[in-house]
Amino acid sequence: MAKSHSEHESLEVEDPMLNKSMTLKDDDMEYIAGTIEIALASLPTIFAILFQVLLEVINIAFVGNLNDANAVATVGLSSLTLNAFLIAPGYGVCGGIDALVSSAFGSNQHYL
User: Nearest Cα to 27, choosing from 2, 6, 9?
Assistant: First the structure.
């Protein structure tokens, strides 16, 4: 038997920033759980992008110790070229494929 609106479970939580308590209902808890799940699923992508930027910073730091302006310029231009011609188009293709795969999955067309 389905629960009526008054029978839904709720959870009392304290908000330390506002110094008051709130009551969370089932719908609120499902929203929070979904948000946490999405945030956790996005962590690998976040770390991949951070490490990609960190690699470029490390390259500049090491080459900068050579005290050669041409070497630093070469690393900077090569990073620019790599980002402009390989990484950015790759993100674009992945975004397009993401839209197509989501659409196919939603319409139950699970074939290549």
Answer: 9
